[in-house]
Amino acid sequence: MLQAPAVLRTRQLVRDFRGFRAVDQVDLDVADGSVHALVGPNGAGKTTLFNLLTGFLAPTSGRFELGGRDVTGVSPERISRLGVARSFQITSLFPQLTAREHVELALQSHTGLGWRFWRSAKLMHRYTDRALALLGEVGLGEVAESTADSLAYGRKRALELAIALALEPKVLLLDEPTAGMGLEDVDRTVELIARVRAGRTVVMVEHNMSVVGRLADRVTVLQAGRVLVEGPYSEVRDDQRVIAAYLGSADVAH
What we know:
The chain is α/β, with parallel strands linked by helices. 35% of the residues lie in helices and 25% in strands.
């Protein structure tokens, strides 16, 4: 049972691709202020579901609500303005921009400046203090003036998180936040997510079940586009269907 109202809800959500059903009648309730993990092997429908929740894909059928508002089929731009920010599995940064400049660009995105932001150093510096504060929040304060291409992989992911936080999201969607990381970076990222979750809801796709166990209040396990099991991590971990289908496989338990 949810401990808080659902800030994000889907009902009978379906997405078909030329006869292939990637998401199959998914009912999902994400409690306000929670960390909710979506797990399952490759092909389970996790990324497609993420794309539906952020407006990058429109559902074939079904309903998606955000804060009680029907946003089914709404564009990514409108979803973002309603308080949803997403980080991607593959980093997508501008190599020659500094970490500070990336966050400044994100901060101005909610204003009417658009790309005029870059025409004036005065306008650009309007956001410097806030950008530096956000970089400090994700542990990047000392590399604020470093270009993105000079940052180690784990720090690039932290920069993407700072960019997402600059959008002041109510709901933060993280796609494989620890993918490709060594143990040290994984631990640092888990600690970072645990800090920045305060005052917001986090939905994450994650293969590393240790990370899920450390962060998630609730876990939804997908199989072939359908919800197989949902509940607290302690219950999901011990569910025989999950053990048989996922936790014993290299796809999930690595």
